[in-house]
Design goal:
The protein is about 55% helix and about 15% strand. The chain is of the alpha/beta class. The strands form two sheets. Strands 1-9-6-2-5-3-4 form a seven-stranded mixed β-sheet, sandwiched between helices. Helix 3 packs antiparallel against helix 4 and helix 7 runs parallel beside helix 9. About 25% of the residues are buried.
Length: about 270
């Protein structure tokens, strides 16, 4: 009997211990504590990546805010198609104000020599910095000061950003070839191009070395359209954003951009 009692008592203790363990394991507080610890650890792990990719996230945020503004004006004024008409001017102006405010507050952006831009069509050529925010700022300031829309040649992949179609059309963005660019210029518009592209953005240096290679198609466009080339240079552009270009060449990683705020100014060199 004694052995049976001891066995029963031992078994009861095991069941009681197992029950307590299960109650502790399924307790909400248990999950909340573990979830809180995991969340904090995850946030700490993500902080370097958030800092690293913050320029891309910020610009995407402003692009989508621009798209939202254009949709508001589209619904408000019942606009349909004909994206380059004056009926879209209010929406374009709102978007331009948004980018201009961002440029002034974040980079102290300013333009010198806007009055020297030719009245007619012209091909605006810029150096492609690590992050070409200066170009966004320039076309916005140009539109606000002169009311002139500058069409832009952009990378094909830019058009693949989800939901960007309205922004793409209203702002006059294009990835078309030489013939279409000539047609834009012949219609009297300005056209902006950054010949260096992503290669120049990632692998140029603090000396602003041009990495154009054989990319001289923009010159043929200007000749065919019989328009002047307007060179534009943005001071402090390389100092505003850094890339890990030399490391990228070794490890084939081409998306790392390290940001820090620095004043920007822009000047025109019309001697060429």
């Amino acid at each position: 009997m004694a052995s049976r009692s001891e066995s029963y008592s031992s078994g009861q203790e095991d069941v009681t211990g197992l029950t307590s363990l299960l109650k502790e394991w399924i307790s909400p507080n248990h999950y909340l504590e573990d979830f809180g610890d995991c969340t904090v650890s995850l946030l700490w792990a993500l902080i370097p990546f958030i800092i690293l990719f913050s320029p891309t996230l910020i610009v995407l945020g402003f692009i989508y805010l621009s798209i939202l503004l254009l949709h508001i004006y589209k619904r408000k004024d019942n606009l349909k198609g004909d994206y380059l008409s004056k009926s879209w001017d209010n929406g374009r102006r709102a978007v331009s104000y948004l980018w201009n405010i961002y440029g002034v507050l974040w980079h102290g952006y300013e333009v010198c020599g806007m009055d020297k831009v030719p009245k007619g069509p012209g091909l605006v050529v810029l150096y492609h910095g690590a992050f070409p925010l200066d170009y966004f700022y320039f076309v916005s300031r140009l539109y606000l000061q002169t009311g002139r829309l500058c069409h832009s040649v952009v990378d094909y992949h830019f058009s693949k950003i989800p939901g960007i179609k309205l922004f793409y059309n209203v702002q006059g963005l294009t990835q078309d070839g030489r013939v279409q660019c000539v047609e834009i210029l012949k219609k009297g518009y300005l056209l902006g191009v950054l010949p260096g592209g992503v290669r120049e953005a990632l692998f140029s240096d603090e000396n602003y070395s041009l990495l154009w290679g054989n990319r001289t198609g923009f010159a043929h466009v200007a000749i065919d359209a019989k328009v002047p080339i307007i060179p534009v240079f943005t001071a402090n552009l390389r100092e505003g954003y850094r890339t890990l270009g030399k490391i990228c060449k070794i490890v084939s990683v081409s998306a790392f951009i390290f940001p820090y705020a620095a004043p920007m100014s822009l000047d025109f060199n019309l001697k060429s």
